[in-house]
Amino acid sequence: MRTLIFVLLAAAAIILFIGKKINVTILSAMLGVFVLADMWPVAARYLNKENYVAKNQNETPYYASKADEFILSDKSLDYRVLKLGNPFNDAGTSYFHKSIGGYHGAKLKRYDELIDFKLLPSRPNSEYSNVIAALSRAATDSSIKAMLAKQHVLNMLNTKYIIYDPESPPIVNNSRNGNAWFVTKISYVPTADEEITKLGEVNPRWYAIVNEKYKANLGDFDPVYDSTATIKLTSYAPNKLVYESNAKKDQLAVFSEIYYPKGWNAYVDGALTEHINADYVLRAMKVPAGKHNIEFKFEPETYYTGEKVSLAGSVLLLLTVIGGIFFHYKKEKTA
Predict the structure, then answer these.
(1) I want to staple 202 with a disulfide (CB 3.0 to 4.6 A). Which of 75, 178, 184, 207 is the partner?
(2) Diameter of the chain by CA atoms?
(3) Distance of alpha carbon 279 from its chain centroid, rounded?
């Protein structure tokens, strides 16, 4: 009925205009009033004064705690933070830091599975539970360090800080693996289930757990331990990571970044180089001996295809407009 009333009112206004009872200005004003009367009450149901907040609240939804300020003073290029409490439904930590947890309605399946199997607070013997158990006892610095050294998943995710009390300095985890590291052994497993299970059995700092489907990519390569070998992150951006490596022999490097082949490409000294999945969620690649520059760039083909299609559409639209103007003036000139 409501819709019918507005249709009839608009129709009446148009009939008055056709009958020359009103001019186009009055018709436009009447239609404008009808649209406003139709839309305003509906829009107010979805966006009203309760949806607005003070400007300062909008600009600063979270305030840094003492623990946050301590971590923010660290100007290292990249590391992650775990806040105890409810880390996988907490958006506040991610406002200031790169968080192990956080919340998003859409989750990467593999990372979500890693959380469920190895980190979930409600799961007994998860690494999160191990941290909570250690802190609930009369923990000493040495006992905390010993406990953190055994939390292989947190360490491979480069968890540098653990916030247990927002008003106190965080725990610094010196056992983390860092942004990237060289391993001494490749441990092949036949299934993804065994891959995630083995994360709790071997230390990813020294063992790269790799699915057998990638065996052909590495061939018979077996990394040789080099105590002088180094690899470090030199530049960080969300879509580009740059590392510098130096080793006497070929190495297998593991990077504390999510493996996502649909867009991420790896380059060694500017040459496109193959990289594989390791440790269930991370990236790994064979790095040749010597000093090298390693880059990971996010270059999704769908984005560039979309850009080309968009450009072609824009050019076509422009040509159509130019053609329309040309034929219009040509017609007028002929007439």
Answers:
(1) 207
(2) 97
(3) 19
Residue ranges and CATH numbers for the domains of the chain are 2-51 (no CATH), 66-172 (no CATH), 180-188+203-299 (2.60.40)
For the purposes of burial, counting CB atoms within 10 Å of the CB of 189, is it exposed (0-12), middle (13-18) or buried (19 or more)?
A: middle
- Cα–Cα distances (Å) from 208 to 114, 217, 226, 287, in that order, read 16, 14, 16, 14
pTM for this model (two decimals): 0.78
pLDDT digits (tens, 9 = 90+) for 53-109: 787 777 777 889 999 999 999 999 889 999 999 899 888 899 999 999 988 888 889
User: Which has the closest alpha carbon to 168: 74, 64, 67?
Assistant: 67
How large is the average pLDDT for residues 6-28?
Answer: 94
Q: Which alpha helices (H) appear in the chain, and where do they start and end?
A: 2-18, 24-46, 55-59, 66-72, 92-96, 109-114, 127-136, 141-149, 152-156, 192-198, 215-218, 301-334
Q: Look at residues 278, 279, 289, 283 and name the one whose alpha carbon lies nearest to residue 263.
A: 283
Contact, 254 vs 283, CB < 8 A?
yes
Q: Which strands sit side by side in the sheet containing 290-298, from one edge to the other?
A: 230-237, 240-247, 290-298, 264-268, 271-273
Could you tell me which residues are beta bridge partners of residue 163? 83
Residue given tokens 């867009």 in the structure block: 263
| Pairing mode of beta strands 230-237, 271-273 | unpaired
Return the pLDDT at 335.
66
DSSP alpha helix (H) spans, 229-294: none
Return the number of other C-beta atoms located less than 10 Å from residue 22's C-beta.
Answer: 17
Of the candidates 285, 64, 257, the residue with the CA atom closest to the CA atom of residue 179 = 257
